[in-house]
Model the fold of this input.
Amino acid sequence: MTEYIIKNGCVIDPTQGINGQKMDICIKDGKIVDKVSNAAKVIDAAGKTVMAGGVDIHSHVAGPKVNAGRLFRPEDKLFKSPMRKSNLRMEMGFSVPSVSKTGYDYARLGYGFVMEAAMPPLEAAHVHEEIRDTPIIDEAAMPVLANNWFLLEYFKNHEIENAGAYASWILNATRGYALKCVNPGGTEAWGWGLNCITIHDKVPYFDITPAEIVKGLIETNEYLRLPHSVHVHANNLGNPGNYTTTLDTLKLVEGYKANNDFDREQVMHHTHIQFHCYGGDSFKSSSFESKSKEVMDYVNKQKGLTIDTGNVTLDETTTMTADGPFEYHLTHLNHLKWTNVDVELETAAGIVPFIYDPKTYIAGAQWAIGLEVALFAKDKERCFITTDHPNAGPFWRYPRIYKWLLSAKARNDLIANELKYGDKVIDTTYIGELSDKEISLYDLAQMTRSGVAKSLGLSHLYGSLKTGMNANVAVYDIDPENLPSDPEQYETAFGNVFAFFKDGVLCVENHEIVNYSMPKKTVWVNSIVPENKQVERDIRDKFLRTYTVDLENYAVFDEHVHNPYKIKVDITQ
Amino acid sequence: MNTITITLAKQAQLYLEADLITPDQFAGKSTAEIGAIEISEGKIRYPLASFAKIEGAAGPTPEETRIVLNGDWSRVKRIGQQMSAGEIIINSNVDMYTGGWMKGGKITVNGNADSFTGIAMAGGELTIKGNCQNHVGSAYRGDWRGMTGGVLRVMGNVGNDIGTFMRGGTIIVEGDAFIHVHTHGEGGTIIVKGNVEGRVGGQSVKGDVFVNGKIDYMMPGFKYVDDVTKEVDGVSAVYAHYIGDLGERHPDVKGQKIFTNLYLKK
Amino acid sequence: MKEVIKHVACPYCGACCDDLEITVEDDKIIEVKNACIIGTEIYHHASREGRVGSPRRRQPDGTYKDITYDEAIDFTAKMLIKAKKPLIYGFGSTNCEGMAAAGRVAEDAGAVLDNCASICHGSSFLAIFDTGYPSCTLGEVKNRADVVIYWGSNPAHAHPRHMSRYGIFPRGYFTGKGARGRKVIVVDPRYTDTARCADHFLQVAQGHDYDLFDAFRMVMHGYAADLPDVVAGIPKEKILEVCDVIKAGRYVHIFFGMGLCHSDGRNHNVDIAINLVRDINEFTKCTIMAMRGHYNIAGPGIVWAWQFGFPYCIDLTKGSHAHMNPGETSSVDLANRGEIDAFINIGTDAGAHFPIRSFEKIGGAGIPMVTIDPSVNMAATVSDVHIPVAIVGVETGGICYRMDNVPIQYRAVIKPFNGILTDEELFDKIYERMQELKMAGIESDGSWEYAAPLADVRPVKEAYE
Done:
């Protein structure tokens, strides 16, 4: 097996408290080791930054909704796709890239693991098919469960053991990773064209509230001792004045404690919180305002929470979410095409193209709020950078967000020169008050590596350069001892990794992808619970009466899961 | 203005794609450099010179470059794609996408053009002396931003999907059109001097459509308002004024609903 | 020994019924339960005399001679490399694994990749590009819908179990009364067998669905008073009556078929239907779905969307990027215009389905042609090479997408006849062979001739029996 030594780089690894220290990283047989032989291939990293491979906690990269977004936007490809490199597959699409472009672009950013944010259980086989065709990156997927008829019924009766048995069955059947909660109750209401705006709105027919669903999911998650916490997209996303709903949702963690063997401390991860920090009662600049400080004040003091940002990148993009009623609302705002897929007994999805135009006040304010969230976060181990790809912007824009966070100048220049309503944005948000605040490279490593892996319960696999870890290593053209004076260099360096190792295989060398054929893992949680005859009967009954597929064809066949990596969690022991 | 003349000497077995035949690409280049510009037939790429004789000289800028195409260009696609200035004169029939995505300058086709002529055109003048096929001045698939500017004139007849998703500019058809004129339109002007079979202004949000001949099947969503006198392409006449499509959404401007206007010559 | 295999999904129509029970004995199919008559036939076909068990090469006198897989793969690989613009078309009847493998071959070959949607629901794709697709899975219709509309489709014949499993008759969670609780509206120029199930039948004037949709939309937008007395042959009163039924529904669903996408205006008949769905959602929940024909014709659209971003009509000849524009890059247009110089017909029958004038330009023009299909169909009878493959859903499994884009996992119930390859294996071998040929210096020079297999190139690995 090939050996490598990454020599003289400035290493940043928060899991070991290493902050820019000059040292060598050795790789052998796919792992990080203490030393290698003289035969090891040398990667000269002098004057460069070395970090563990990036970890993405929330990105829509594979599955029915992502693909419907690709399919219905030919114009997202026209004159907007990079020309193919001779040794690679074609890379098509701007906001919703083809699977090849997705894998390559993550590698170019130095990322090794990506969590697919929403997998409808009924369509799990589709997610796994796309994962098979996505090169390089390890992936996992979260089944969406907050509008699932089984769980709504169990939660209504507060039957957490039954909910646990069912959720465990779903994780195994879908080869899923964590319990995803999107617009709890609201998406079921959307089955009748309705929605749940607050956490106390009753779900039609099921006679349960979003608050009860979220608490039920937290209890189920901790009962199952899962690696990740419940992963929440709260009610009322994207609407002015929604921050109260957000705070109400976040406060549901009070009284719960994490219960797991994976180092995870939070009981709720709240995703793309930028979309949930709005004040005011309309999108007009006279009313709309940032409430990021109010939300982040609570997050900062509540250790039971982790969040990701959902930063707006000011691009034309494609919004897609299991929050069906939100997308219906959005298509009425911008009058652009609208795709919707309601999934029987389980969830829904909506997709609408969207332009975050810096010439509009609202896009500028959303841009500011996303950055405020990251800047207000006191514990960077609990706040992660995402774009909710592709909702607030495509993931390959991450380096641009890093630039805006690492350099106050980049941020202030943008407000002055590119936002048409920069003054109004300063008036109605906190971005002006944060005008000299910057994050460090160490913060960045926490927000994109160590913190993310910990929140996911994957710190034993990703986000660290400790000896014995899988060798996912990224080397960037940034010298921590001589930081760039031109902020653009941050964007260039983080967008074009100098070298990237995936599981010890040199994937990017000298900024070019040289190998994309290494095996990649599908990480899933094999949850084991005590036998539960009641739930088995319920499952059989629902499939007999309500589903349109046979129970025996529902669980993903082994042959359709590719390079599975099983994390076993047995609560019967 | 310098003139460069390209004479197509040889026909391809299939079709040629020549999106680089534009004043923007030619400007400042020698005839040898222009001869080296790539055209393709399926997956095979050739230098332009292997199919054509190149004479004259390009100007230093696109504005000062006129390209004259002689010989038979009826199996060549994408001429003048995305051009911003200068002039192209095609002395034969031509295939698809002529003047597609053009932003400025002038193209004259002294013959017929196939489909997708002037697709998503944003500016300039595009004149087809003969007939066109379908999707003249239309949008690319899926794009809600169709033709946004310029003047596209077809002196003969056209097929279906004329100005689909149009948002600006003017299309003038001097002959007849088949079906779907200004479908999904949200601006711009279409003038059809001949007859249209039907589906004029279907799902149209706003914009103006003039038909001098007859429409066999009016959309039910168009409602007669009044008679008006309008000057259309330099000629004044009385038109019956309809508004619609009443089945489509329409913007409110200062409390007033804006409709698509359909003017049918009396 | 007899064995009954249960929960088998059917490789006939887009309804993808997955409750079949197949009895097999000694690798022969004895009995098929739960399937409709057409699905049943597909299974029995697999065990019938006359299957082709080996690739075949057409001889100068028009007869066919068996050749080896090596020879057939070599012919196909060389054809793909040499041709300037080869077309790979079909995929109505194969699994997604085969489609993904074909995508890799097409990209490497610089081919045009297209599927049967091109001559079927392709115009629905155009509508989806322009207006989106507010849809649902079939279980939503079963469990919630109390108003069901079949517009320009006739499932009584084309999707025989559709009405009983999903559309009209099933009792679901919120629809315990089954058919008695549903209002059924059928719109068609003909009084079809489906129309016999309708509470309201609108006999629309042929070719004027677009006008009728516009009238419905006028009512939804509050312009009922401005409706003409008759639209597309339907009296104003009837339109208003049906609109009242729709508005009173708790959940309205529209199934549309080729009656919309194959009459004048095509995609616009569908995009106005989709816009009507948007309008109805202002009053009550409403969704729409295309009645896709083959059991996995949704598959290529899905697989190629993740590979290339486009569902069909994908021109990969540029090598640098994919280009799609139906009307130009669609199979029938390419054939009509004489724009291709090699043709692979896979998992379909272009000979039977293309307009004859178009197919003549391929079959009769000396363009090299390969048919990949389990059966001897019309295209196979004029192909230079015919390569039989395993029947998906019978001899091999794989993932197929139902008409609502739900992945259904198919099962093999018997072994492939005579050990023939699956589509996926075949395309992977064609890919490998293309790499070998390129290494050996075979180039895309456009000078395709009917070359004999090259002797100086290493044969394809003998990996199959």
